[in-house]
Design brief:
about 300 residues, alpha+beta, 13-stranded mixed sheet, 7 helices, 13 strands, globular
Amino acid sequence: MTLKPLQRTVAALASLLLASSVLAQTAPASKPAPPAKAAPAKKARVPLLIEQRAIDLIKATSAKLAGAGSMGFTAIVDIEYPSKLGPPLAYPVRYDVAMQRPDKLRVLQSGAGAPNEFYYDGKTMMAFLPEANLVAIADAPPTLEAALQQAHDKAAIYYPFTDLLLPDPYKAFTNKVLHAFYIGPSGAVGGVATEAVAWATNDVFIQMWVGTDDKLPRRIRAMFANDPLKLRHDMQLSNWQLNPSHAPETFASAKAKGAQPMGFAKPVAAPAPAKKPAARKAAPKAAAAPANAAQTKTP
């Protein structure tokens, strides 16, 4: 019983071998298969490197920022966006910042896009568009860190200098740091002597220039790992004031409060206008018969 299937299998194999030998004699020789492409060599992983000199410089500038009870500065940020030609376009945005710990912030934004203003006084936050005379007002938490998080979550408001305002900038800068190295001195940034340092996490690569004497950040350049276009964010920092006495009215605006209210929410893109259906061309009308058609008709 078990031999019959085996005999049929042997017979089938013999038939195939015979057929293949006949085909080999009569069919033209097949072309050799093209050589397989070699798999691209994997890039060698850069060994982890954290230089203590780099960490010390990041700690020094973080401590200088965290120790300030209030501050003011100007940030000019070049943010790149892709263009149809390929190379990115840079859109410079200026932010004039006044901050007072633990619960005060004003940001005046100008440059690319419509000017806007942001106010936070520990109880309320306002986002104001002066040209449109529109304002979004919301209750706010009692700390600056929580208010910035709420503004981001509810209305997609984000500032590239947020880490400089936090209670612990060092923690924000170096969260899950993989590499950190000291680059060297530079006299070409912010008109003062600086030292440059770079570090990387799985999410971002950052280069920062720090004032040699005052340990204040003068320029921060970042590239994000998850950005397929590898666009760069470049921020110049100037007009530093540490521990200034901000007037109470700095963090409020009567003009903003009197503007037309709108929802404090994430902006929603306007829907694309619906395309009108293409008008059908009217069928050409039949030509009218001449008045004397009966007289011209052939018999």
